Here is the input.
Amino acid sequence: MTTTMPTPAATEPNTAGKKGTVFRPPVPQDGPAVWRMVEDTPGLDSNSLYYYSLWFRDFADGSLVATVDDELVGFLTGYRRPEEPETYFVWQTAVNPRHGIPFLGVKLFQEAADQQVANGARYVEATVSAENKAIIMVLKQYAKKHSVPVETRVLFPSSLFADSEGHHDEVLYRIGPLTAS
Here is the structure.
């Protein structure tokens, strides 16, 4: 994993507006809350509780959590690709809809991607199921906001996941080249 230099935006909490929403880097102690959120979110690949705590220890610089009054209400995991350090890959994200914060998932994605672009990323990538129209829209809106193209291709075909019943093709969305504004 490539180490990136954190900017002040990546290390200081960022308030996101309504209801006192704060975006901040995750810490290992956020692992249990994130694990529960993943377990309660249909369609997300499940990982162990240990995985999230370890991820937040070692890869916090590419990830964010959203809190309201110190309660975790959303998260995003991502990292800079080791063989392509100018590429930021968004791996998993979820928000708790019961807080009723409009567009929280969109804001979380934009904040994480913008921080990485400010740190030198030129591309943002994510894999998405073709059926996940909401995430596809977020990715396309981000590209449109920055006036850059989105390239798509199947990164991993469903046949690669033959042991995982009903797994879809993992379609790669690649946004860029981006520049810091």
